[in-house]
Amino acid sequence: MEPRPHDHSPADGSAGPGSADASPTSLRTLVLLPDLKQQHEPRAASGAPPKRSPEARLEEAIGLALAIDLEVVGSWIIPIAAQRPATLFGTGKVEEIKLRITTEEAGLVVVDTSLSPVQQRNLERAWGVKVLDRTALILEIFGERAQTREGALQVELAHLHWQKSRLVRSWTHLERQRGGYGFLGGPGETQIEADRRQIQGRINRLERDLESVRRTRALHRKKRVRRDQPVVALVGYTNAGKSTLFNKLTESGVRAQNLLFATLDPTLRRVALPHGIEIVLSDTVGFISHLPTDLVAAFRATLEEVVEADLILHVRDIAHPDSEAQSADVEATLEAMDVDPHEPGRVIEVWNKVDLLPEQARARMLENTGPDTVAVSALSGSGLDRLLDRIEQRLTSGRHEAELELPAEEGELLAWLYRSTEVLEREDSPDTIRLKVRIPASQSDAFTSKAGAFVLN
Predict the structure, then answer these.
(1) Mean pLDDT of the residues in the chain
(2) Helices (H), 71-111
(3) Choice among 11-20, 22-31, 188-197, 408-417 with the minimum mean pLDDT
(4) 250 and 333 housed in the same domain
């Protein structure tokens, strides 16, 4: 089968992202997807979720390149029967790609798979341009996205683990040029000349700093537990709409774009549920297929918000053709964090972007949602009331409820009940106030002491 090249030149004939008014770090880039045929059959035979089509995988790889303003001048699906240890591709294909690089005047090639250090070095020598594999590209994106000190520490740690594994003299000269981690740097700039011992020393320091971050997060979690503030964590495949949903629920302005990894640094906000209970909602980094193991490890401090969360909202782009495969990747990442995505009562699937579905498909989806699924449109706000109700039901399922009747003059006690319990129902008469309340476990003793005399049998 012949490779299938795709033209990504601007339709209007303009210079595109690499023009004078575009990012100065833009590079003319070819995106290559090696389609390793021998990897498909075993998974399909096992009954696992359907594997993404090569076209969908290529489109995602292009999205990763565009996420750091690379100018994608062409893309190519390249079927290969087996990987060559030295160059991944066969000799003839390497030459064919070199001709395409020359024709497109490309300065960078993204190969959407994991390359060994030897393969990467040999391809750079054969093609005369920089080569990034999938891991390096994701690390570069994360390096640009990190805004907080914690995020920067986590990304640098992941980068150093990756670099340490590749000390074959091909990556000991990484130049720094931009906010990322130096893969795209130019000559004449500050160089990283780190041997294994120096890298390990820096890794040790970063891990100590991140341990301090973890201790601080643990203290914050303890305070939230004492104040009865359950944590609800948003997880999902990158670009599933988590940040848009987060903004709608919290009325905040977290960056939300149609861009892979638009959110990197964790964000926490308080949200009031329908009957007054307050939760802490956590927006986390998006997951992706083949997320580098070092990145998962480095972001442990952030992802502990997920591990420790009382409830996890798995946000899915239900209109995406690969929604099932994306869901499987998210569940695999959760399992790698020792979180069981199928634990009863732990996860609610939020089927987002239902507004993008045809009307009949949308109606069927709304009818088929169950106790563990809620269909919403984060963009329009449709279904968010149902989602908040479902969150409240899940978090309060074990709480005690009581009915009581207060004399009308018990204003101070009434105010305490509104502060410390969830008031589910209220009925006023000239002399009395009847209430139905839901009582947090931490307020049980105080409730008995303050309001026990007014509880109806």
Answers:
(1) 80
(2) 91-104
(3) 11-20
(4) yes
Q: Quick check: 350 and 316 in contact, CB under 8 A?
A: yes
pTM: 0.73
Reduced to 3 states, what is the DSSP secondary structure of residue 271?
Answer: strand
| Parent domain of 304 | 228-395
Whole-number Cα distances in Å, 236 to 24, 29, 258, 380: 32, 28, 14, 19
Strand partners of residue 239: none
The answer on whether 135 is annotated among ligand-binding residues is: no
355 annotated to bind ligand? yes
353 is in an annotated binding site: yes
Q: What is the C-alpha separation between 65 and 62, in angstroms, rounded?
A: 5
Report whether 310 belongs to an annotated binding site. Answer: no
Give the total residue count for the chain.
Answer: 457
Concatenated DSSP letters for 286-323? PB-TT--HHHHHHTHHHHHHHHT-SEEEEEEETTSTTH
Is 243 labelled as part of a ligand binding site?
Answer: yes
**239 in a known ligand binding site:** yes
223 marked ligand binding residue: no
CA pseudo-torsion sign 403, 409, 410, 414: positive
And the tokens for 44?
């399909």
Based on the fold, state whether residues 273 and 331 are members of the same structural domain: yes
Do the annotations mark residue 236 as ligand-binding? yes
Q: Residue 280: which CATH number?
A: 3.40.50.300
Q: Residue 181: which pLDDT band, with cuts at 50, 70 and 90?
A: low
303 within domain boundaries? yes
Residue 368 assigned as binding residue: no
Q: Is 381 annotated as a binding residue?
A: no
Instruction: Identify which has the larger pLDDT, 255 or 135.
Output: 135
Contact (CB, 8 A) for 182 and 193: no
Any known ligand binding at 374?
no
| Residue 180 annotated in ligand binding | no
The number of helices, as runs of H, and strands, as runs of E, in the chain is 15, 14
Residue 171 lies in a domain: no
Q: Does 51 belong to an annotated binding site?
A: no
Q: Find out whether 70 is annotated in a ligand binding site.
A: no
Residue 264, marked binder = yes
